[in-house]
Structures are given as structure tokens and as C-alpha cells.
From TrEMBL:
Enzyme Commission number(s) from the entry: 1.2.1.38
One GO MF term: N-acetyl-gamma-glutamyl-phosphate reductase activity
Entry's Gene Ontology BP terms: L-arginine biosynthetic process
Keyword presence, Cell wall biogenesis/degradation: no
Summary of the function given for this chain in its UniProt record: Catalyzes the NADPH-dependent reduction of N-acetyl-5-glutamyl phosphate to yield N-acetyl-L-glutamate 5-semialdehyde.
Organism in which the protein naturally occurs: Pusillimonas minor
Identification of the protein by name: N-acetyl-gamma-glutamyl-phosphate reductase
Amino acid sequence: MSGALGKKIKVGIVGGTGYTGVELLRLLSQHPNVELTAITSRKEDGMPVAQMYPNLRGHVDLCFATPENAALDQCDVVFFATPHGVAMSQAQALLDKGVRIIDLAADFRLQDTAVFEQWYKMPHACPDILADSVYGLVELNRLKISGASVVGNPGCYPTTVILGLLPLLEGGKALVDTQHIIADCKSGVSGAGRKAEVATLFSEASDSFKAYGVAGHRHHPEIAEQLSAIAGQPVGLTFVPHLVPMIRGMFSTLYLRILPEALDTDFQALFETRYVNEAFIDVMPPGSLPETRSVRASNQLRIAVHRPSPGQLVVLVIQDNLVKGASGQAVQNMNLMFGLPETTGLEHVAVLP
């Protein structure tokens, strides 16, 4: 494949003006095997990328262009950092030209089109392509991703919840009660995107803390679909997201009932063994209390396992919602798709303070 042979991977980004788009640019501009070829924005057509994002001065020389003028069909891979519905409307034309696709929205996350239409209020434009797409959680689908033409990058909340539960559910025998899983999750304001909305204004979000989507959130069916497939049975999930007054970061606390037959399990050892070879998952020492600042701007996800009582398990999971929860994970997928070590261009140390 091109990456493995040393040839630069020609990369295009559709919708590069949002937070996931600029994270893609930050990561890809330093990737040794990537040639940034095209970036699109109808509204900012002709504007230098570095004018919008001055942190990229001296690193990205591209200008935004309309999709029609961006020569996306000349790329090896195109990332869609766009609203839901955009990638599926353009997928077939790109695939016909041999271009691979990584979608950071929801178009290729849910295999059940009826569920997709229920939550995203639009018909799915290419169910045949969806059927051949791969859910891009590397630690779950590594082999499938390496041969995929279309990857649906997981949502940020699902990444933390699924990876926090994976060792407990896989292997055909769950160790916890799959009908009473509670995921209590918090995200920084950047998770809402760069669009202007009253709820994410500084005066609204700062000095406050609130739950949202309690009656239903789009990430719930995504999490439930993946967990049910892992466990081999439908799961019962209570998922409550919260908005916290920080720019970036995500903290998911998972509450679980240990099954009677699993009471003798060493859960710390279970997690350490499952993730020992995963470069971007850090199972912390017993008793650890992870902080979101320890993963800021990195592709690292950290897990701490606690057992406050013999029958209860609490799993703490943190990540940067814009990196491992979005753009970093997308680059990790690209590396696999092009035969590169999946850590390539992603070994940034978290930023402190």
C-alpha cells in the first residue's frame, strides 16, 4: 500500500472549518506520510487556512476551496468533518475514483438504517455502501479497518463507553449485568462544534454544569448497537451526557453490577491484559483517579478500574474528545487503511498545565 511503500498519502478534508477539521489539519500537517492536498469550505472559498487558524501558520499552505474545485477525486483518502448526511451524499462518486473515505459524522456508524433515520431525521442515501463500511474503533475492529474502503469514525462518547466496557463483555460470557449498565458522561464545550448557539456561549456555559439529552441522545443507539454485538445479546443502557465548562476533554464514569459467577475475577488484571498491546490505551494503577488534563491534545485514552464493594465495579475513562474522540482516532484509522503503524503521527504528549 502507498503508506507502507513510502509514497505520500494524498489527503483531502471536506468541511475543514470546524474543531474536528482543524484537529485533523494539526495532526496531518505533522504526519510524515501525508500530503495535504485539498480542504473544502463553501463559505470560506479562497481563504488561506492559516488565516482562520493561525496555529497552522508555517505548517499548512492550503486555501479553502469549494468541493467542486478541490480535486477530491485525486486524493487517496478523504476525511469528512461535516454535518451528518454530507458524506453519504458524496461517497459513491469518490469510491468510483478509488478514493477511500473516513467519515467523522454518523453516516456510517449505525448499520440499522431505520435507527439512523429515527435519530438523524433523514433517509440513508447509500445503504449498500453502509453495509460494506466498518465501524472505526481500532481496538475492536483492527483487521476489518485495514481492508476497508469506508470507515465510520465512532462518536466521542461511544469511544469512551465501549472501550471502558469491552473487556467485561467480549468473549461470549459477560462478567457484569448487561441489563443495568449506567454511563455517566461529561464533555467539554468543543464537543458541540464551532457553530454559534446560545447554550455554548461563554456566559451560558461557563461557571455551570448541566445534563442534556436525558430523554434520548444520538450516541445512545450507537453505543447500544456496538455493546450488543460485543456481548452477543441486547444490553440495557442508561446513558446521560453532561456539559462541563471546559474547552476540551471527556470523562465517562461507568457503573456496573458484577455477576455472582464473576465475583472472583481480578478486574484490574483483566483490563491490563486486554489492553497491554494497545498503544493509545493506558490502564492506570489500582486506585488511580484520572484527570482530563492528562490527555489534553493527545490521542491517549486512560482507564481506571475501581471496585468500591464486592458486587460493584466503577470504570473511569478519560480522553480528549477532539483527538481520540474524533480526529486522532480518524488518523489512527487512516494509518491502518494504508499499511502504516497506527501510531504514526499520533505520539504527541498531552499538554500540561
